[in-house]
Specification:
The chain contains seven helices and eight strands, in the order E-H-E-H-E-E-E-H-E-H-E-H-E-H-H. By secondary structure, the protein is α/β, with parallel strands linked by helices. The protein has a five-stranded mixed barrel with strand order 4-7-6-5-8, surrounded by four helices. Strand 6, helix 4 and strand 7 form a beta-alpha-beta unit. Helix 1 packs across helix 7. The two termini are 26 Å apart.
């Protein structure tokens, strides 16, 4: 399903009188494929990487606006050997959080038939970018046997903020790096004081480590595929929710 070829507007999906569904992602390019779709029933919010950025930006938005629900999307590292590049994982559990994803949203998401793998799993949140395969394997060992999981940097923050406000939420990720893969660089070294990765510092690092270029280009290619699939997921989910609201 190529989201760029979809010929309808999300405006028609939701009643304009209702509060919108807030689509939250850490990075702008995780939302990129949704930015070209005109809509009023869905609002996009970029928070920046990490627990503190996600919490601060989401709380600030909700102080000024109402949301019908929060859908957290983005990229993640795989914690299960069965996961492949760009696979979609829907969190039915958020590690270190007492809050549960909304069952209505979860049920609707499970109805989707998108032509690529969609699994249910556990969201594991890290304060740092987990870039080494060894670290991912350590997290994977903490999961129950045969459980699917992913690691990101925002899920517990999203769950905490939504739970405090009684907001339904769902967390969905697309896999950029596999369980046994290192990322091409330790991106933690190039984060600013606010926790965001500084692209200029990354580029300077690449000049010193030209062997990382191939890995970065591959990561960019995968990110584009992940963004395509995440957008298709969001549009499909909104369509199902719209149909349910009319039935």
């Amino acid at each position: 399903m190529n989201v760029q070829l979809i010929g309808f507007e999300l405006t028609a999906m939701l009643n304009a009188k209702e509060a919108p569904i807030l689509i939250v992602a850490a990075l702008s390019y995780e939302l990129q494929k949704l930015k070209g779709v005109k809509h009023h029933g869905v609002v996009l919010l970029e928070t920046g990487e990490g627990i503190q950025n996600a919490k601060r930006q989401l709380e600030a938005w909700l102080e000024q606006n109402n949301a019908r629900a929060v859908l957290s999307i983005g990229f993640a590292g795989g914690l299960s050997s069965s996961l492949q590049h760009a696979d979609i994982v829907i969190a039915r559990e958020v590690r270190d959080s007492k809050s549960k994803p909304d069952q209505t949203l979860l049920s609707a998401a499970q109805e989707l038939r998108l032509g690529f793998p969609v699994s249910l799993g556990v969201a594991v949140t890290s304060d740092e970018i987990v870039w080494k395969a060894e670290a991912k394997r350590a997290l994977a060992h903490s999961l129950s046997e045969n459980r699917i999981g992913f690691v990101d940097m925002e899920s517990t923050a999203i769950a905490e903020v939504c739970a405090a406000r009684g907001l339904p939420f769902l967390i969905v990720r697309s896999i950029t790096d596999l369980l046994d893969e290192d990322l091409p660089l330790d991106f933690n070294l190039y984060r600013n004081h606010d926790g965001r990765v500084d692209s200029k510092r990354v580029m300077k690092a690449v000049l010193r480590k030209p062997l990382a270029i191939k890995g970065l280009l591959e990561l960019r290619r995968r990110s584009r595929q992940c963004a395509d699939r995440m957008a298709a997921f969001v549009i499909g989910l909104c369509e199902i929710l719209d149909l349910r609201s009319k039935s």
